[in-house]
Amino acid sequence: MTTTTTITSSPTSAAIDTPQIPPGKALLAAFASTFGWALDLFDLFILLYVAPIIGRLFFPSDTPTLSLAAVYASFAVALLVRPLGSAIFGAYADKHGRKRALMVSMVGVGISTALFGALPTIHQVGVLAPILFLVLRVIQGVFVGGIVASTHTIGTESISPRYRGLMSGLIGGAGAGMGALLASVTYLVLSEIFPGEEFDVWGWRFMFFCGLLSTFFGLVMFRYLDESPVWRQLQQARKTKGPTVVVVSPLKRLFGREYRAVMLVNLLITFGGGATYYLACGYLPTLLNVVAKVPHTQTSQLLMYGSVATIVGALAFGYLSDLIGRKKTFLLLGVINLVSLPMMFLGVAEPGSLTRTALYCVGIGFMGGAIIAPILIFLNERFATELRASGTGLSWNIGFALGGTMPTFVSLVSSSPAQIPMVLAFFAAGLSVIYLIGSVVIPETQGNFK
C-alpha cells in the first residue's frame, strides 16, 4: 500500500489545469468524441431496431415475448463484456494515450458489426446460427468497451472547465441520440429500398453492413485528431519527475482500498441512469412495432423525433450541471423521471392518433438523453488523470452493462406484448428510486478535475 500512497500524493495526481488548446483542435476533439460514441450507439441500436426480425431468424419461439427476450439477452451479452473491453483499452489509453485506443476500438466495432449482416440464419445452419451471433456480440462488446474509455475522456479533457458539463451531455447523451438518429434514418431508407417482407430478407443485413462507418471514421480520426492535452501534460510531468516514479496498474488502484468505495457508489448512478436509458430509448422501437403495431416506415419516423429529443435533453441537462452542479442536476432528474416516465410508457401504446404517439416518443426520448447527460463528467471528476480512462470506462460500462439487462427482464416478466407498457412503468419507477439514492449519497464533484 506504500507504493499506492506515494503515487496518489505525487505531482502527477495534483490538480492539473487544462492546457491552452487552439479552438479548432478543441472542436475536433469534441467532434471525435461525440461522433465516435454516436457511431458506437448506432452499431448497438441497429440490433434494437430489427429485434423482432432477429428474434424470428436466430431465436424463434412460439411465444413472441420469449423471442424478444432472447434478442435482448444477446444485447445484454455485449454489454456485460464491455467492462472487460474498458479494462483492456482503458489501461492502454491511460498508458499510451486516448487517440490510439479510440482508433483500434472503432475499427474493431465496425468490422464486427458488419459481420452480423453476413451470418446464416437458424433456418440455414440450425443451432450454429445463434452461437455465431452470440460470439460476434461478445467480440463487439469488447471493442465497444474500448470506445467508452477513449471517447469519454478525450473530449472533456480538451475543453474549457466551464463547458465540461455541456460536453458531457454532448458526448454521453447527445452522442447516443445522434447514433439512434442515424440508425433511424438508416432504418427509414432501407425500409423504402426493401419494402415489406423484403426487409426481413435483405434490409436487416444492410443495416449491419452500415457498421463499417465506424471503421472508416476511426481511421480518419487517427490521422487528424490530436492527443488529449491533459494526458500529454501528465506524461510530461512524469518525464520531469524522472525514473523514480513507480506507476501502479490503474486496475489495482481502482479495485484497491483507494477507489473501491468510489467505484461502488458510482454504480448507483451508472446503473440507474443506464438502465433507464435502455428502457426509454432502447425499448422504444419494440414498444412501437410490437405493442403499438406501428408500421416500419412510421416507426422509423417516430424514432427520429425521439432521437432529436434525446439530443436536446442531453445538451440541456448537461449544461444545467455546469450552472447548478452535478449533484443537484442528478436529484432533479431523478424526481422528474420518477413522475413522468411511467406515465409516458403507459400512454405511448394506448390506441389513439399518431400525433399523440409521437409526442410520447419525444417525451421518452428527451428523458432518456437527460438522465445520462451529467454522468460522464461526474465520472471524469471522480478519478485522477492517470487512471481517468480506466475509472470512467469501468464505472460507466459496469453500470450500463447491468442496466442493459433490464429490457431482457421486461420481456421475460411480460407474459404478452399487451403487458409490456405496465411492466416498463414499474421498472422505470424502481430505477428512478435507485438513481435518486445515488444522487443523495454522491458528493458534489464540479471543479474536481485532477
Can you give a write-up of this model?
This protein has 450 residues and is mainly α. The chain has a single domain (21-240, 249-441), classed as MFS general substrate transporter like domains (Growth Hormone, Chain: A), CATH 1.20.1250.20. Helices cover 78% and strands 0% of the residues. It is built from 22 helices and no strands. The chain has helices spanning 2-8, 23-49, 51-58, 64-80, 82-96, 98-116, 122-125, 128-154, 164-193, 197-209, 212-224, 229-241, 250-254, 260-282, 284-291, 296-324, 326-348, 354-372, 375-380, 388-403, 406-413, 420-441. α5 (82-96) packs parallel to α8. The longest helix has 30 residues, at 164-193. The chain is globular. The two termini are 21 Å apart. Residues 1-16 have low confidence and may be disordered.
